[in-house]
Every structure is written in structure tokens, then in C-alpha cells.
Amino acid sequence: MENIKDLLRKYNESSDFLTLQKCLNEFSQLTLNKPTQTNLISQRIAVLSNFSTQFICKSLKPSFLNHNIWPEIYEDEYNSWEISTLKSSSALYQFKPDIILFLFSSIQLAYNGSNNPAVISQRISQAVTITQQNSNAKVAITLPEPLEEERTKNSWAFDWRQKLLEALAHDLPKNCEQISIDPLVRQIGSKSWYSPRYYVSSKLPFHPNHTKLFTNFISDVLTELITPKIKLIITDLDNTLWGGIVGEVGADQVDLNYQEKGYGHLRLQKMLLDLNQRGVLLAITSKNNYADAIEVFKKRPEMILKENHFSAIKINWDSKSKNIASILNELNLSTTGVVFLDDMPFEREEVRQSLPDIIIPELGKDPVIWVDTLLDTGLFFKATSTSGDLSRLNLYDVEKKRQSEKTNFKSTEEFLSSLNLVLKVKNYSENKNRVLELISKTNQFNLTTKRHNLMQLESMLQQGGECFVYELEDKFGSYGIISVLITMPDGVKNCIIDTWLMSCRVINRNVEHAVLSHAISKLKKNNVLTIKGEYVPTAKNIIARSLYEDLGFKLIDQFGEKKLYELNISRSEVNNKLKHFCKIEEPDEK
User: Among 72, 143, 466, 561, which is most exposed with the fewest C-beta within 10 angstroms?
Assistant: First the structure.
């Protein structure tokens, strides 16, 4: 792993193609096997393109490693992106990718003779649709980039690409991730980006010096598809969301003037609003009098962000770290994927010392460039929002209502009984994406923290494994898919729990008792007599350390800190330990 870290440093420091090429050659000499004892997420990524991708595919390896993803890359033959998708027995599908990435350049599409935008769109859309039918992979494509000839809107190139983009927007399947590289071209500058001689000699649509920037841009996008990086942004108010200190100048005088310094604060608000609308939670922690700070939201129409955009608000004189801990507790979240924004170095350092896992960007002194600084980190890209992303925002609003009602009950048992909890057993094949999402990112309630990809999971099921998937709802609404329990055969009449995880949203509701109760009932029908379960401790899953003991399992072995438990489910009294408040509903129940 140290060799990889050293090469990653060289990769990140490379500034020209020759240096990058040398580094990539060193990478290719490393072992092809994923290092053991790491939390790297395995992903199989297939690349199809209408231009040369030799160095792009090599560069994707370190680029993904920067995101703690261990990629296995399949590079298709040059310009075979249509032919390779047609046969279900092709090498592409035998590779069993998690992600299929189509890289398209306008040059090949515009100059190959058959350049009718409507026809090109249909060809691309057909290829995407076929790959979705023949594989379980997520599909992403790069949209055709501006041609060098596209200098005015009156040029043929501008008209051609606009028609192509319009056709693709209409024809492509909605669950295909569309990646526009236009922002990258603008950032680099067209004079530096284009290099026709390299296209002629090497079939590269851009100057090779930009290979690393291109692959980093692509890996930022795909990483968001694999495991979303940011789930919550906690922000300060004074001199962060607006200019000035509201307690000193009043709500009417804080700077929100888009023509002056307030422009930087409004840019930040607009960025946060966009992320919120794509499923990222927002929260506030501010040292202020509550009434003073809230008055800005009520009185200033220039505010882009409103009170209702924030899932938690802590405006008081407590330390920022204390308020953040309170917000995480209120939202049932860990520190993973949490960002803290504050203009004050002192406040950033105070939080950094108390909560070292939280992401705390250094904003600098000039608010006007904050958004650029944040975007340059690659952390704040949000892929196309799914219905799950957007519904997740509503879950936290509903949770506030639950917690408010909880105060009306004298005991937790009375409160849980009043919720009318229903544990719904769901079909694995219809919820693969959510299952993989939970496996890739759940840490707190995760007994082994194994990170299976789709190919591994499908292989386990083919070997006799079972994947139990559960949704929870109560009188307030649905919590969504909240638990996955995967068992594997362990002898003739025994099985072992390979993976058991639950969303932190349902902790302290005894749902784990209901999940195990249902799994036992199903395993008994398969003549299973005993279940084994392993607890592998991590820095984040301490909350689950006594789970098996609480559920009646007996400790049968220990390997260092790892513990192996066993439960004889053939005994009639096994369910005595399983106390829950859920009605369990099978898929065929009304």
C-alpha cells in the first residue's frame, strides 16, 4: 500500500504528459490484486469510445484510487462501441462491469460521413439501451464536446452540436448519466484544449497534457455514482452565507448585494441550494442570538436559501463542534460525508480538533472565489438525482415530527407501539441499486463492513446465498430500504451471516429484532439449524458490537478483536429474545 501512496503522490504532482506517462508505467508494474486490509471499494469499469483511450484507461486507475476506489478497467477496442454492445456473449458483458462508460468525441461523429444528429442520437441511445438490457451495470456517457470550429452560433458546428444534444436529451434513457465536459474545456481554455495534430497522429481529441485533468473529471462523476461523497453540509451564517455580523449591523444591513462583495455569498448560497435540490442535506450552526439570525431569512428577499432548506438549525453560543455533534445526533448521521463551512480559521480548527473525520475546506479570505475553491476539490459534484435522493430529504422532515411526538410518551416502548411500525420484505432483484448503495456506504450499523460489488453479490447468490431486503414504514410514512442481511451456506444445515447492515435512521427502534425474526423464519423453511454471525470491529461500528449477544447468540470463537457467534434456531425458545414492535409484511400481502 505504501508503494501505491507514493505513486499516487507522483501522479497528483505530474504536470505534463511525459511525467504522467512515466508514472502510469510504474503503476502498470504494480500487482493487479487489490491490497488486503484496506477499505478500498472494488469496481469493474468498462470503457467504450470513438477515440483512443489507452492513456485514459491507464490514468483512471490512480484517479479512482484518489477516491478510495480500486478499479478494474476493461478497455474496448478502438471505435467498437456499437459492435461490442450488440452480442450478449461479447467480452464486454463477460467482464461483468459495474459501470459502462461511453466516451464520445464530436470529431469522429461530425466527420465520419453519416453525421445526421438525429441518426447519431438514435445510434448512441440504442447502444446505451442494449447495454442496460444485457448487464446490470450503471451506464454513463460523455456528451459530444464543442468542436474547434464552433466559434459563433452561426457556424455549422454550433448548429450541428445543438441539434445533437437536443436529440440525445430526448432519446437517451433517463437513468443514463450524461456527462458534459464543456466545463472542463472552459476551465482549460479552448486554445490549450484542442490539438488537431494529436487527433490525426494518435486519435486523441484533446492535447495529451490534459489526460490527467480529463480522467480526474470523469472519476469525480463516476465516484458519485458509486458512493456519494457528500451527504450533509453544515454552514456558518455571519460572513459565510452573508457579509457582516447580523448582531452588530442588523438584518437590513448584512451584505447580500450581488453587484458587490455580497456576490460571493450569493454564489455559495446558489451552489448549496443546487446540492440540496439534488439530495444533499443542509444544516446551520451559528454563534448568534437566534432571533437576530433568523430575521435575515424572514426579511431579506435576496436570500437564496430559506429556513425550510435546512434539516437542522443550531443558532446559539455553544461551540461549533458541540452543535455539529448535536446535529448529527438529531439526524442520526455519522461524520462520514459531512462538510463544515465557516469563514473563521479558529472555528474550522476547533471543529477539526474535535471531529477529525469531518471535511473542512479552507475557504480563504475572498468569498468571491469560494465556490471555485470548493468545486476544484472534486467533492461537490452531484450526479443525476434519483427519486431515492430526493425522497431522502423528506425523510428528515418526517423524522422531526416523530421526535416531536416522542415527548408525549413516558417510555420508549409506548412510543414505538404508537408508531404502527411495518417491516416490509422487499424483492432483491427490484432493489439492487439501493442494496449496493447501502453496502458501499453503511458504517455505523454494519457487522463486518464488507464492500461487495454487483458481480460479487450475484456470485454469492448463485452459490446458495440469500439476500434479505427490508423497508420500514410507520404512521408518518416510509423510511425507505433500511436493512440488508446476506447469508451464505456453511455446511449442509448451517449458514453464516456474511453481511448485516441497517440504516442509522432506524436505530433504537428494535427493528434488528424484527429483521432477524423474519430471516430465521425463512431459513428454517430451508432446513437451516444454526446461524453463525461475525462481528468485525471498526472505528465506526461500535454501536453494533453487542448486537449478537443481545439477540441470544453465543460467542464460540475469537480471532483478536473479531468475534464469531452462533445461534441454534431449531430451539423453540429462540424467539424469546426477539422483542420488536413491527408487523412483518411479505411482498404478496396487501
Answer: 561
Alpha helices in 355-453 (DSSP H): 370-376, 387-406, 412-418, 432-441
**Are 42-226 and 232-376 equal in CATH topology?**
yes
Buried b (16+ CB within 10 A) or exposed e, 507-536: bebbbbbbbbbbbbeebeeeebebbbbbbe
Residue predicted with more confidence, 528 or 30? 528
In the block, cell 483511450 appears at: 53
Q: Grid coordinates standing for 206?
A: 484533446
3-class secondary-structure state, position 381: coil
* Among 434, 66, 372, 429, residue whose Cα is nearest residue 219: 66
Element (H, E) at 276: helix 262-277
Tell me the C-alpha distance between 98 and 44, whole Å. 5
**Position 349: which residue type?**
E
CA distance 135 to 169: 23
Q: Evaluate whether the domain defined by 232-376 bears CATH number 3.40.50.1000.
A: yes
Query: Which three three-digit cell numbers place residue 156?
Result: 455549422
What is the identity of the amino acid at 411?
A: S
Distance, in Å, from the CA atom of 579 to the CA atom of 517, rounded to the nearest integer, reads 9
CA-nearest of 208, 176, 226 to 14 is: 208
CATH 3.90.78.10 fits 42-226, yes or no: no
Closest residue by Cα to residue 568 from 535, 539, 531, 517: 531
Query: Would you state the cell numbers that stand for residue 589, as one nine-digit string?
Result: 400481502
Residue 440 and residue 501: Cα distance in Å, rounded?
11
Best CA proximity match to 390, nearest among 276, 233, 225 = 276
Residue 333 and residue 293: Cα distance in Å, rounded?
A: 25
Domain ranges of the chain: 42-226, 232-376, 409-585
Return the CATH class of domain 409-585.
alpha beta
pLDDT tens digits for range 459-509: 899 999 999 999 999 998 888 899 999 999 998 899 999 999 998 778 778
Q: How many other CB atoms sit within 10 Å of the CB of residue 72? A: 17
Q: Which of 237, 496, 280 is nearest to 392 (CA)?
A: 280
CB 240 within 8 A of CB 360: no
CA nearest neighbour of 454 among 106, 135, 112: 135
Q: What is the DSSP letter of 269?
A: H
What is the per-residue pLDDT for 590? Answer: 45
* Residues contacting residue 317 through CB under 8 Å, at least 6 positions apart: 287, 288
Integer Cα distance of 368 and 370 in angstroms: 6
